[in-house]
Automatic annotation (TrEMBL):
It is found in: Cell membrane. This is ABC transporter permease. The chain crosses the membrane at residues 39-60, 104-123, 135-157, 163-182, 259-277. One of its GO terms (cellular component) is plasma membrane. The lineage of its organism: Bacteria, Bacillati, Actinomycetota, Actinomycetes, Mycobacteriales. PROSITE patterns: ABC_TM1 (PS50928).
Length: 292
């Protein structure tokens, strides 16, 4: 009678069969390595904008220290920071930024609303397109800044001329994108809606609008930048506050440090406005893509 090997004997251990590592442990370790690599990559991508700004400031400071540019033309970063503190302390920087943003927002809203209405008409109606598009296409290549004398002649040097110029400049990019988005509605989608008995309003809100919305939002985003560009140009006459006014004053009195502060404020205001718009509309774009 053969007895079973006793526990603790070395019979099984001496068989030479290797002990396998559990698959779950190996997979978990691999997943953790991938997660660490992904986190490192995301951290690097997040740090790149800051690193690029640091490199620019270091290069800028080096150019001033080694006198590659005259200090009257390119102030040192420390001078710009000092000027920014002064303008912030006396309230001019905040007041000018708010005034410019308010004027740009007014022009953006007025120009965008008119452009969306006109773009919808020209995109949907051949009659409206024939009546309005030739005039728009003739006026569109004219830079809005070139119309400053005409705006002053018509509306004076007050707020009305600035609203006119900004609204006109915003109108064109928004109109182009709205018109293109509306006109690009697929005919087969329209035929399906008609065969289902959908009214014109239902067809517009459920077929035309979702398809055109990404294009319209692109035009609106371009309009934000355009409104800031034009408000700076229009603020150089007839006002006593605003970043455009302060830029012109810095030029007249040879204050490059204050000029750079105003340019930086414009960039920050524009970047914030653009990001706010992007964050506010990204869910709308997703909805439009799902509906179209």
């Amino acid at each position: 009678m053969v007895s079973a090997p006793a526990r603790g004997s070395g019979a099984l251990r001496s068989s030479g069969v290797p002990t396998a590592v559990p698959l779950s442990s190996a997979a978990g370790a691999e997943r953790r390595r991938r997660d660490r690599g992904e986190l490192a990559r995301l951290a690097l991508l997040s740090a790149l904008p800051i690193l690029s700004l640091v490199v620019v400031v270091i290069g800028w400071d080096a150019a001033v220290r080694f006198e590659l540019f005259s200090a009257r033309l390119l102030p040192a970063p420390a001078q710009v920071v000092h000027a920014a503190r002064e303008m912030y302390s006396d309230g001019t920087l905040f007041a000018d930024s708010v005034a410019s943003f308010r004027r740009a927002l007014q022009g953006f809203v007025v120009g965008s609303l008119i452009a969306i209405v006109v773009g919808t008409l020209t995109g949907r109606s051949r009659i409206a397109r024939g009546l309005l598009e030739p005039t728009i296409q003739i006026v569109r290549p004219i830079p809005a800044i070139a119309l400053v004398p005409l705006a002053i002649l018509w509306f004076g040097i007050g707020e009305e001329s600035k609203l006119f110029l900004t609204s006109l400049g915003v109108f064109f990019p928004v109109w182009v994108n709205t018109h293109a988005g509306i006109a690009a509605t697929r005919d087969d989608h329209l035929r399906v809606a008609a065969s289902l008995g959908a009214s014109k309003w239902l067809t517009f809100t459920n077929v035309v609008l979702p398809g055109a919305l990404p294009s319209v939002l692109t035009g609106l985003r371009q309009g934000i930048a355009t409104s800031l560009i034009l408000i700076v140009a229009s603020e150089q006459s007839g006002v006593t506050e605003g970043l455009g006014f302060r830029l012109d004053q810095a030029r007249l009195f040879s204050q490059p440090d204050r000029l750079f502060v105003c340019l930086g404020a414009l960039g920050i205001v524009g970047a914030i406005a653009d990001q706010l718009f992007h964050q506010a509309t990204r869910h709308t774009v997703r909805w439009a893509k799902e509906q179209s």
